[in-house]
Design goal:
Shape: elongated
Low-confidence stretches: 49-69
CATH architecture of one domain: Up-down Bundle
Oligomer: single chain
Largest sheet: 2 strands, antiparallel
Helix content: 40-55%
Distance between the termini: 43 Å
Number of strands: 2
Radius of gyration: 31 Å
Number of helices: 8
Order of helices and strands: EEHHHHHHHH
Strand content: under 5%
CATH topology of one domain: Rhomboid-like fold
Structural class: mainly alpha
CATH class of one domain: Mainly Alpha
Length: about 250
């Protein structure tokens, strides 16, 4: 049954009126003998069996997808926020304790907890700003695309792992912060976009701005005591490897 028009025009007064009435409310002219029938089938309640079939169900997993580990483009980057907050709190703590008590150096063998905490301590505000800017931007983008566990894994592998590698190379150096985490997350985010750009595929990253931040982080060991070049570039290599694996995973899902 065809649905009626949205309105009809009264032939006498020219007013637009409802198609479901028989007389014009403005001039009283009779428009039709009876109102059109309303098709109620669309508004009827669905049968009980149909309502049961409308219950929400999880979609099948795609190739390479793990239950519970998935990005949410409209969600909140909780893990990134937690990492930034811990770094800011640790910066305030340094106002009450000597820097050397938290640095990663030869004493780490007797204080193994330093491997876990040194990534949050920065003796220099500009050094901290540069690293946390990279962690905040690229950790945020990675978390919305791939979920919080990837961000945590990159922070531990590139940040704490890069510091541990630097400490093993030079036991006498005093190492602070997580420069490897900043450069590693940047690499993990940027590498897929760089490869897409070379292939002429559209990408959503700002590669020029990313290059500027990468250069600043790479030069930071020359300007700041406590920023290890070994830790920085170890994180870069580990982050690039993670970015390559993410690109292969995305390709396998297609």
């Amino acid at each position: 049954m065809a649905s009626p028009d949205l309105f009809v025009v009264c032939k006498k007064c020219g007013s637009e009126v409802s198609p479901y009435i028989t007389e014009c409310p403005y001039c009283g002219t009779r428009l039709r003998k009876r109102a059109p029938k309303i098709d109620r089938r669309a508004g009827e309640a669905a049968p009980r069996t149909a309502r049961r079939s409308l219950r929400p169900a999880l979609s099948p997993l795609r190739t390479g997808e793990i239950p519970g580990i998935k990005g949410d483009p409209s969600g909140r980057p909780t893990m990134t926020i937690v990492l930034l907050a811990l770094s800011l709190v640790a910066f305030l703590v340094l106002a009450f304790i000597p820097d050397g008590d938290v640095a990663l150096n030869a004493l780490a063998s007797s204080d193994p907890w330093r491997y876990a905490t040194v990534s949050f301590f920065y003796p220099n505000g500009w050094y901290q700003l540069a690293v946390l800017l990279a962690v905040g931007i690229y950790g945020w983008r990675l978390e919305l695309r791939h979920g919080p566990l990837l961000v945590l894994a990159l922070f531990l592998a590139c940040g704490a792992g890069g510091d541990a590698i630097a400490n093993a190379v030079d036991r006498d150096a005093f190492i602070y912060g997580a420069p490897g985490a900043g450069l590693g997350m940047l690499a993990a985010w940027a590498l897929p976009d760089v490869l897409r750009s070379r292939r002429g595929i559209e990408h959503d990253g700002d590669l020029l701005g990313t290059l500027v931040i990468a250069v600043v982080l790479a030069l930071m060991p020359l300007m700041v005591d406590g920023d290890s070049a070994v830790a920085t570039f170890s994180g870069l290599v580990l982050g690039a490897l993670a970015g390559a694996m993410l690109l292969r995973t995305e390709a396998a899902r297609r």
